[in-house]
Amino acid sequence: MKINESEPFENGANPKQEQLGKFTTDNQGEFMTTDQGLKINDDQNSLKTGERGATLLEDFILREKITHFDHERIPERIVHARGSGAHGVFELYKPMGKYTKAKFLNDTSIKTPVFARFSTVAGFRGSTDVPRDVRGFAVKFYTQEGNYDLVGNNMPVFFIQDATKFPDLVHAVKPEPHNEIPQASSAHDTFWDFISLMPEAMHNVMWLMSDRAIPRSLRTMEGFGIHTFRFINDEGKSHFVKFHWKPKQGVLGLAWDEAQRIAGKDTDFHRRDLWEAIDEGHFPEWELGVQIVAQEDEHKYPFDLLDPTKLIPEEMVPVEIIGKMTLNRNPDNFFAETEQVAFHPGHLVPGIDFTNDPLLQGRLFSYTDTQISRLGGPNFHEIPINKSIGEVTNNQRDGMHRMQINKGRVAYNPNSMGGGCPFQAMISEGGFTSFEERIDSNKIRRRSKSFFDHFSQPELFYRSMTEDEKRHIQDAFAFELGKVKIVPIRQRMVNMLLEIDEGLANIVGQKLGLTPAKLPQPITGSIPADGDLEHYHSFKEKLSIKDAPSLSMATKLPTDIVARRVAILTADGVNDEAFTKVKKELCDLGAMVAIIAPRHGFLTTKSGDQYPIDDSLLTAASVVFDAVYIPGGDSVKTLSANADAIHFVAEAFKHCKPIASDGNGQELVEKSIGQSANKADGVSSATTLNEFVEDIKKHRFWNREMNNEIPA
Ligand code: HDE
């Protein structure tokens, strides 16, 4: 497919979808064939020496089928193995020509096809969706100038400052090598052993202990490019840029107890949620934002722009919103698309470039290298999901699984026999050139002193949290360190917390039965080799802002209830109006409503109308819903005598979710959570549906945790 760069993609046309279509097939109306196209007459019996005889080696149909099956698995990703993906489009709000010449960031009429993959980091491919973990947030833009990949996370900073520490970090967090325990969890000795000796990790660790690490949905996460990149404009001028994805669905988390239960009830909780939202037409959207810093301002901040353990607070450099990504199509085949997609921070287009961030520099090597073993050779760019929409024309040849058929005798440059083709492109023709940064230095193995302030930003993060968020962080530390068996590691961590916030250190220490102790001197490796501590707390001293509210999730609630999941808990004999009216109104507002009853089949209302039951108390759990509504009627009597129904409501209450009841529905609420709890925030009567809707927008009523009355 040749892409004409001067023409934006035709109205509504999606060149990537068109391209994928050529590789997509279904078996509808077709004969069954072998891989060679031979029609198969009997797929149920192998070729044997008589009815009860041995199978013949000659049976090439059997051999082909079994051989293919034997080789169905490929190595999973070493990190980010567990993921979910979706197709979509990116639309630009305003041309960014002042900063970048990237075509897809200049022409607002272009709808750039994208494929996004979200992932956990530590767990294996079949692990739960809801561990406490960082989430990957990777987007491939199929632009007219080639593929551009923004391979980020849902947290704006990383654990380490140099790529050489990455294998150590990953070895520490992955299941321990002797017994492969625990799966998908950082709550074990080796992770915290490493962290307690790695002060630079503390900023990311604070985010990891926050509710950002247990997102309610993949749709309710922010995304960050983390590193500082460069935008390059037509004149070759560079600006520094940090990328942000802001979800239109709000930024929401789970309760930790809830996350642990979901891990058992629905391992695919996030994958299912994304799939169903897209399937039902509730397309998730994220706005792309940029923080831009002029080249001249590189050294203006009390932290280093090249240090990936630091963020630029939005209160210092505002995020400018420049476009929107909408995910609007589920993959046709998980393996072909979500598993085989290959991201790489080095997939660039003219107008975007790297900086010398030492973590980013290491990533530029790793991503191609890893695909070679994961996807079996150097031709993974030819796999349909990875193919650029423009033609690939170069002198690369051969290798495992080569698809392209290159004609002619010439596979070298320069050549005269091929007419000099393919040509190099001049800058004016879209040829990529690297930013010409002046470098004049010795070859050294050292970090800049400006990287050695490890605690100011974690301190700012903690200070900017609400009281509820702070409590969640304290509890998360206590849980994780409580799982650590080696007490000196716990002690080192509590001591480290003292460097960030005394209150935090004391609370966590108290929960662990430890007294935080001031470090006699900074941990080795956390200070420059010459011991100069000038930068140790530089940010704290020079900071112009006290708080950064942008770091808190509390300021990022949704403005509607689209795709929020509401359980209508009911049984036969429910009052018709209380049931149908609220159901309809919630559905009209875009909520995803499910009828949950004691058994499967059909629900019969008081007037005898029948409705299909979506799920029964045998299989459903309150943890997979955002809110519960109990309509009144004879149904309430049945539910009040059902322990699963009582548990359903009690658990929803414990996890701070909105609960609404109508008429005698309140009896079930009281039976589940008691009379006093019944007056708690977020427990309402559905006669005022508005209140319930507003409660759903508020997501959770965390203050209920303070009483901790409900054992559910
Ligand atoms: Fe990755 N990372 N990473 N990483 N990363 C991989 O590449 C690596 C880092 C991120 O959905 C691997 O294709 C190194 C930061 C995402 O397919 C591997 C370093 C950030 C994904 C790799 C980092 C990320 C990966 C494994 C330190 C956020 C999943 C499979 C120098 C900005 C992409 C693969 C997907 C995947 C290496 C650090 C994000 C091994 C060496 C920082 C979202 O190449």
Offer a few descriptive terms.
about 700 residues, alpha/beta, Catalase HpII,  Chain A, domain 1, Hemocyanin, N-terminal domain, Rossmann fold, 3 domains, ten-stranded antiparallel β-sheet, six-stranded parallel β-sheet, 19 helices, about 25% helix, globular, binds CIS-heme D hydroxychlorin gamma-spirolactone 17R, 18S, heme
Summarize the entry for a quick read.
The chain is an alpha/beta fold.
Describe the structure.
The chain has helices at 15-21, 60-70, 166-173, 189-196, 202-208, 256-265, 269-279, 335-339, 358-374, 456-463, 467-482, 487-498, 502-512, 538-542, 576-588, 635-640, 643-654, 665-677, 689-698, and strands at residues 83-92, 111-120, 135-143, 146-153, 223-224, 229-232, 238-247, 285-294, 320-329, 352-353, 565-569, 592-597, 602-604, 610-612, 615-616, 627-630, 659-661, 683-685. It is α/β, with parallel strands linked by helices and 712 residues long. The chain has three domains: 83-386, Catalase HpII,  Chain A, domain 1, CATH 2.40.180.10; 454-551, Hemocyanin, N-terminal domain (Up-down Bundle); 565-706, 3-Layer(aba) Sandwich (Rossmann fold). Strands 1, 2, 3, 4, 5, 6, 7, 8, 9 and 10 form a ten-stranded antiparallel sheet that branches. Strands 15-12-11-16-17-18 form a six-stranded parallel sheet, sandwiched between helices. Helix 4 crosses helix 12 (487-498), helix 11 crosses helix 13 (502-512) and helix 17 packs across helix 18. The relative contact order is 0.10. The mean pLDDT is 94. Bound molecules: CIS-heme D hydroxychlorin gamma-spirolactone 17R, 18S. Residues 77-80, 83, 117, 119, 136, 138, 151-153, 158, 163, 166, 226, 308, 341-343, 359, 362-363, 366-367, 370-371 line the site of CIS-heme D hydroxychlorin gamma-spirolactone 17R, 18S. CIS-heme D hydroxychlorin gamma-spirolactone 17R, 18S (HDE) binds next to strand 2, strand 3, strand 4 and helix 9.
